[in-house]
Amino acid sequence: MFSRFRIEFLTCSLLLAACHYAATGIGTDPASSTAGEPATPPVPTAGGVITSALVPGLVHGAATTDPRAAQYYDNAQAVTEGKRLFSQYNCSGCHSNGGGGMGPALMDNEWIYGDRLEQIHQTLVEGRPNGMPSWGGKIPDDQLWQLAAYVRSMSLPQTIAANTDDTPSQNPAPVPRAVEQDRGWSPPPGTTNDYTDLIKGPQ
Amino acid sequence: MRSNLTFAGLILGSFGSVLALAQSVPPPVPQDEVFSRESIGHALAAPTPQAGHTTANPANSPADDGQWTMPSKDYASTRFSSLKELTPQNVMHLSPLLSFSLAVNKGQEAAPIVADNTMFIVTAYPNYVYALDLTKAGAPLKWRFAPKPVPASQGVACCDVVNRGGTVDHGKYIFNTLDGQTIALDVKTGLPVWRTRLGNINIGETLTMAPTVAQGRVYVGNSGADLGVRGRLAALGENTGKLRWRAWSTGPDHDVLIGPQFKPFYAADRGTDLGVKSWPPQAWKIGGGTVWGWVTFDAELNTVYSGISNPGPWNQEQRPGDNKWTAGIFARDPASGEAHWYYQFSPHDNHDYDGVNEQLLLDMPFGGQMRKVLIHIDRNGYVYVIDRHSGQVLSADPYGPVNSSKGVDLQTGRLLVNEDKITRVGRETRDICPTASGAKDWEPSSFSPDTGMIYIPHENICMDWRSMQVSYIAGTPYLGAEVHMKPGPGGNRGALTAWDPVNRRPAWMVKESFPVWSGTVATGGGLVFYGTMDGWFKAVDARTGDLLWKYKVDSGVIGQPVSYRGPDGHQYIAVLSGVGGWTGAVVSGPIDPRDGSAGLGVTAVMADLPKYTTAGGTLYVFSLPH
């Protein structure tokens, strides 16, 4: 949870204005904002305090979308190639066929550092503090995206359904773009997680 | 027993939903797939029990002072407590006196250490150390110490983030941390006297073993053979932590500390730089042979014995040759580290049979006379009785199901590998017994001089193996194999066997559903204590194996039980719960049981363990009500 929050925080750091308001929850009518001044949150409530639906780990908004990810969705070749690389680069030594070992399982639905392709790619590039090596700059970037696609595929219902014995992830399904759109979560009543306008800033 | 092996497992889904899976353990290997003990066990002479009584020399096993200052109890590694208050007649009244949370829910393999009415415990990563005052009700904390190992060390530890314990000597508690430090703490204050960094996690090197302390030296071996770490044993000054000598397990003779004193018994071990020549070019540099198990000091013969792990990678076709000096045992000079002799249990190991298990130093009748022997119960399935002076094998008998070899040739000393079970790229070798983690892994046996028996906690697991080409990438696993494990003949995955080393046969055996991954302790009252992975702590009759008492603790037991005399003069039994380790990581580790190959292949055979226990970590102390 802490790690997810940290990702959120880092994302926010890139969006200083947004973060300012996510953190303080204080503002005025967005229409009164001017260029160069902080934008305001979209749902003012009594007393000027925003009830934010900001939840650690559920990162939304255009700012976290990496355009390089697009071509690896709905891409059967990407997951097949990723499967080959997963073994070649000893990923399987720690993560087995997705069930884990020295490293965590990847075929379950727990994503410490996020399940979007760009987040998985970022984990591969940077490494992670509990022992995940950093691969950025060591192998070609398109291979990292292919690996990310295979890793994301392991827990897809389609991939799980194709497992015939206790050696899973042998027939990885392409990662559908739709998997990124339904988060299985919606904001509680009276709150919002739509900061799109805020992120874009004044037009 | 069999009915326990198949069930519909339950896995928590992503949003708290529960979905049923057809999670099952594979069927056991048929009995006729393995060789009989009589057909592959060999000895140089027929048993001569009339020639004397098996015991440990007082130099290695002095009169019991009621403490438990080192994991092995004494240099002989008897793990025998002479205390007699607990007996088969009264053990039914044994009751928990106190428990203490270790605040770490990973595999707890350490022995609680008792010295000066204080109990010392080191946990799995992050290697907290606790000192408890046994003179006060409830054993309150005297101090605690957090060494703060680097978190990344967790990601290069092959088989859970375990620690096998510390040792008290001359006012210091000495232990290792996962990230490669050896630390000596002042037993009074808990403050470090010295810290020495011996391991480099960037190449996958960790420390998990319990250091051995003797004659002012601390012996520490490394872990990480499965990541291509080159093995070594180091001796540190006990007062300073400074390196005295270091002996590598592979490479040229001057690295291995092989010189004029080196007189191995068998011809195959004689020659120059065999630690280079028995490998493909440069392969010895990433060839494993770590020293992560037990190192034993022999006060009688002034020798230190160290068991050496498997060679790397697991794919044997990438390392033609005998791969010296892996999967064997060295006898060395304690002061200089120079090798006296070496014996290789598994030349050119095919199956991950590390040679790191405990060494019991006993005086035993053999061939009509008393011999000074070292008894080693190897992962490859044999109980070896070795002459401690010369390194000659006197007998080698299987104590569990074996088909990967056909016995040991006692003329050449060589293991007779079964061609049918050799592992190769491009084919699956099925039903190999014992499995990679062995007929027995690191968990130590005990010996009772009263019964003459060795109480062996062990496994009954076999495996299917597929090899594949692997590249060395520093800090990542260097395996080249995919393993799926399965129960051995009979279906019970574990056993406690009372082994009669003189007559070379089991006296009795208790079958357990899961591997027995805890140590054992034998007592003067005629009891043997051990724990099970599903969370039972048990006492059996040392003469018959009859179950006399059991108590359900909070998590599976893989620790080393101890027996000690408290400040009030009464006998106490202590053990850590907390399932984990290689076979328990399916509960304590980040593993999804739907992948049978997960956790280096143990998940297939342990997939039902989450049904029986959860992760934990607690000290339990038991006594009779008084």
Description:
The complex is a heterodimer of chains A (about 200) and B (about 625). Chain A is mostly helical and about 200 residues long. Chain A folds into 2 domains: about 1-60 and about 185-200, no CATH class; about 65-180, Orthogonal Bundle (Cytochrome Bc1 Complex, Chain D, domain 2). Helix content of chain A is about 35%, strand content about 0%. The longest helix of chain A has 13 residues, at about 1-15. The two termini of chain A are about 35 Å apart. The interface of A and B includes residues 101 and 166 of A.
Briefly characterize the structure.
The complex is a heterodimer of chains A (203) and B (626). Chain A has helices spanning 2-14, 16-24, 76-88, 91-95, 117-126, 141-153, 157-161, 196-200.
Largest sheet of chain B: 5 strands, antiparallel
Q: Which strand order does the major sheet of chain B show? A: 3-25-24-23-22
Give the N-to-C terminal Cα separation of chain A: 35 Å
The share of residues in extended strands of chain B comes to 25-35%
Shape of chain B: globular
For the report, how would you describe the main beta sheet of chain A?
none
Counted by DSSP, the helix tally of chain B is 5
Question: How many domains in all of chain A?
Answer: 2
What percent of the residues of chain A sit in helical stretches (DSSP H or I)? Answer: 25-40%
**In total, how many beta strands of chain A?**
0
> What kind of oligomer do you see?
heterodimer
Rg value of chain B? 22 Å
Average per-residue pLDDT of chain B, rounded, comes to 95
The CATH superfamily name of the largest domain in chain A is: Cytochrome c-like domain
- The assigned structural class of chain B equals mainly beta
Average pLDDT score of chain A: 71
